[in-house]
Amino acid sequence: MRRRSKLVRLAKALELPDDIVLDLPRITMLGNQQLLIENHRGIIEYTSSCIRINLNQGCLCVRGEKLTLGHLQKEQILIEGMVGELKYDT
Fold first, then answer.
1. How far is residue 51's CA from residue 31's CA, in Å, rounded to a whole number?
2. Reported pTM
3. pLDDT tens digits for 49-82?
């Protein structure tokens, strides 16, 4: 925890975003139709109603209807469909 607070102070001093310094995910949602997840650690589960994404500090569970992976890269995942629920488990 002490290391984390030092990193936060360093990020603020250098005017860097916390997500870069602390290795945090960036989650951007466009309505309930698209969800962009950056800085992930892979896919744990994938069905048309549930997608679970491994993150550095836990797991993100996306539930909805007709969920698909629209764009998949090493550090980015775009989920498309009707997103109904997001649950962040640490």
1. 18
2. 0.78
3. 999 999 988 999 999 999 999 888 888 999 999 9
